[in-house]
Structure formats: C-alpha cells, structure tokens
Specification:
Elements lengths: L1 E6 L8 H15 L3 E7 L11 E4 L1 E3 L7 E3 L3 H10 L3 E5 L3 H12 L6 E5 L3 H4 L10 H12 L4 E4 L2 H9 L5 E3 L16 H7 L8 E5 L10 H6 L6 E5 L5 H7 L5 E5 L3 H9 L3 E4 L8 H8 L4 E4 L14 E4 L4 H13 L1 H16 L3 H21 L8 H27 L14 H17 L6
Parallel strand pairs: 1-2, 1-6, 2-3, 6-7, 7-8, 8-9, 10-11, 10-13, 11-12, 13-14, 14-15
Antiparallel strand pairs: 4-5
Helix pairs in contact: 1-14, 3-15, 11-13
Length: 448
C-alpha cells in the first residue's frame, strides 16, 4: 500500500504521538508499504525515515517547540503525484483539519483514516479562562472525524467514550510497546543515583511526563506530603517546569529534565514505583513503558489509562483528585516488597503481550477496510459550515496570538551589561543593539 500520513507534529519533536507514528512507519516499511509524511516545516534539521512533504508554519504561542502548519495547493499537488491508497490523519487539529479542507475543495477523493490521540476538549479545561472552549472543540473534532471512512483510537476505554460522544466508524489501534527497549534488565546504579539525588538506597517513585498544565504533575506534591520519606523523580520538560520546581521545593523531588533513548529506558528500570496523575490520556504511553520496565503503577482512574492498569494486579487506580487514596496505594507498595514484586512481574508480562507488529497489522487491516468503505461510498461526507469556519479560525487565532507576542517582545528594549559597548562608535553601537535584539527574539547566539 501507499500511505500518506498527515502529521500535526513530527520530528525532531518527540512525544507520545510522534513515537507512535515512528513505530507505525517502521512496521509499515517492514510490511513492504510505501509511506509519505506531510507535516509542518520546522527550522531544525530533520532525519526522517521516509520522504516529507512540508508546509510553511509558525510556532505555537504556548508551545514554541510545536509548529502549526498552513497547507496550500502545493500539498494537494504533491499528494496527487504520490497517489496514495489511504490518507491517514494522525491526531488532527488546526493543520490536519486545514489539510482535510484542502482535499475536499480540490475534489481529491481518497480513502481517509483519522486517529484520535489527544483530548483537546479536556485539555482546555486545565487552562484559566479556556474551559468554555471544551464543548466547541469536542463538536469540531467529531465533525471532522466523522468525514473519515474509518476512525481509530488507542484504547478500548477511549473508543467507547468517543462512540458515546457520537464519533462514527470507530476501530481500535491497539496499545503497544517495545518490551526490549523498556525492560527491568536496564536497571542502572548511576541512573538511580541521579534520579534520587544521590539517595539510591531509598525507594524511588518516578513520573515521566510533559510538564504542562493538562498533565496534572503538581498534584503529586499532595501525594508526597502524605508519604513519609517518599522521594520522586520527575522526568520531562515543558512550559510548567519552573513553576513545578518551585511547587515541589522542600520535598524530596528531582527534575533531571527530558531523557530520551537509553537514558529514558534506564530511568524506568531504575525506579521502584511509577506514579501518574494525568486525567486526560487517551492511552498513556508512559504508563505502558513503565509496565514494560516492570514498575507497578499508581495512576488516576481516568481516560485510557484504565485500559492498561489492572487494579490490584499490575498497579492501583485512584479516583481523580483523591490524594489520600493515591498516597495510600503508594505507601502500600513501598511497604510491601512482595506486593511490588508480584505487580512488577504481572505488569511486565502484560506489557510484553502488546507488541508493535500486531498493533500495526491491526492498523493495516483498518486501512483495507477504509478502502472498501470508500469504494462503496465515494462521495464527500457532510461537514457543517460552522465546523469549517471554526477550523479556519483556529489557525487565524493561533497566528494572531503569535504575532501579538512577537510584536510585544520586539517593542521591549533589550538592555545588556557590556563594559565595552559604551566605547563603540555610535553607528557600531546601534548595529550591536539591533543584532542583540534580533538574537534575543530568535533565541540564537549573537556574533559581533
């Protein structure tokens, strides 16, 4: 098959969705399929395993590492030349919906698969003043997803929830993990010392997360306060990191930053219990990675995590917001080595049964079903004018906010303490000031 992937986010950014996309690509290639990735352009170099069709973009105001793509007619021409058997939209929002509209306007008929990975409608509830957008985003997501021949999501819990919300033609993209990359065998004394702040003898809690409001990491301070001598390593980075470090101050907590590759594998294997507070996960990749590393998990009983953690067997699920209950489960695991060992073995066995080969074969089956459905119903499925309008306003709103932030930054004079600057001739000093301001705005080094 020839498969075009429309990716809201792609390399070099790596998160749970990008990791899942890369595993999808590897398995598709192993099956002999041809893949093209369509994504927003970024300023950093990329090393993609497959060809790219990039669109102009601008950085998202709240997540500068994420770029919002603005597709044009050139992307449609590229897709026509590629002639895919299926177009798969991965976690579509502003960029994905804009591509969908471009294809509809160009009368480009092809089997469509959408996959749902992020509860944007729930994310906005965690940001002050944005909760009112929740219903609008849910309706927008449903409208666009229902134009697809097949819709995928990544946990049975999420599939049932989306069906209740009116999403149609839902199928499961099964959870999967690389159980060789994430394994108890990768336990490392040096990594344990790093994560524990040089207290490797004490039992160690671990959480791995993007440090953003919707991940609810701050809730874990309430858990730590109820666990005597509990120590926690918070692996990850994001816009809330500084605020979280201040919030965790005075507690036994370390912030080693974002870990990738073998270091991330060692981090999982070097801890004793995994704790996770997010209440908006469609699946929870990090939970499955922790299970593969043999960690019992204490997590919020919300979203797709409920499809992974078997309460009382591979970990414990606590009612969202209940710090007392969560801390009770943590204390129970820390105090009972036999319980930890039993849950560790069960978690590892469960994770090992979820492999990428089987998961992607299920996706390939969904591609074939999408082609059959499309052959029977080749026309465009309805899309309301309101959904079209809101999707266009998304990109416009993001771009206006970014422009306003950039303009505001440009209007603030940059002051530097530079002993030699006042001895420069007037024109040279002016050039230096301009160069410094441009470098500060671009976050790049300034050379004089």
């Amino acid at each position: 098959m020839r498969i075009a992937l429309i990716c809201e986010v792609y390399l070099p950014k790596v998160d749970g969705v990008v990791g899942r996309t890369l595993n999808l690509i590897r398995q598709l290639q192993a099956a002999g399929d041809d893949v093209l990735v369509c994504c927003p352009a970024v300023p950093e170099p990329r090393e993609s395993p497959v060809p790219l069709a990039e669109c102009r973009s601008f950085p998202c105001i709240s997540y500068p590492d994420y770029h919002i793509g603005v597709p044009g007619p050139e992307l449609v021409r590229r897709l026509r030349e590629y002639s895919p058997d299926v177009v798969h939209f991965i976690n579509p929002l502003a960029f994905g919906f804009a591509v969908c509209l471009q294809l509809r306007q160009a009368a480009f008929r092809v089997p469509l698969v959408f996959s749902f990975h992020t509860q944007y409608g729930e994310f906005v509830r965690t940001y002050p003043g944005l909760a009112w957008l929740s219903g609008t985003l849910w309706r927008l997501m449903r409208a666009f997803h229902n134009t697809a021949d097949v819709n995928l999501t990544v946990s049975q819990t999420m599939l049932e929830d989306l069906q209740r919300r009116g999403f149609e033609r839902m199928q499961l993209w099964p959870p999967a993990v690389d159980s060789q990359r994430f394994s108890p065998a990768l336990r490392d004394p040096a990594m344990r010392s790093r994560l524990s702040g040089n207290r490797p003898v004490e039992l160690l809690l671990l959480t791995v997360s993007r440090l953003a409001a919707e991940k609810n990491v701050g809730f874990l301070t309430e858990v730590l306060d109820r666990v005597p001598d509990g120590q926690l390593a918070v692996v990850g980075d994001g816009p809330e990191r500084d605020a979280l470090e201040r919030r965790f101050a005075g507690r036994l907590a370390t912030f080693p930053g974002c870990l990738t590759g073998n270091q991330l594998s060692q981090a999982y294997a070097s801890a004793d219990v995994f704790v996770y507070a997010s209440e908006t996960e469609t699946m929870g990749n990090v939970v499955l990675e922790a299970m593969a590393a043999g960690l019992p998990t204490v997590a919020a009983a919300a979203g797709g995590v409920c499809s992974l953690v078997q309460h009382g067997r591979t970990g414990f699920l606590f009612a969202p917001g209940r710090a007392d209950e969560a801390a009770g489960y943590v204390r129970q695991l820390l105090a009972d080595e036999d319980l930890r060992n039993r849950m560790s073995a069960a978690a590892r066995a469960d994770a090992c049964s979820r492999n990428w080969c089987s998961a992607v074969e299920a996706v390939r089956s969904s591609y074939r079903q999408a082609a059959q459905i499309h052959a029977q119903h080749p026309g465009l499925r309805p899309l309301s004018w309101l959904a079209v309008l809101i999707s266009r306003l998304l990109i416009l709103g993001f771009s206006l906010c970014t422009w306003r932030r950039t303009a505001a930054a440009a209007s603030v004079p940059v002051q530097r303490i530079d002993p030699g600057a006042d001895r420069l001739p007037g024109p040279a000093a002016a050039r230096l000031s301009a160069d410094v301001q441009r470098a500060e705005l671009a976050n790049e080094p300034c050379s004089v």
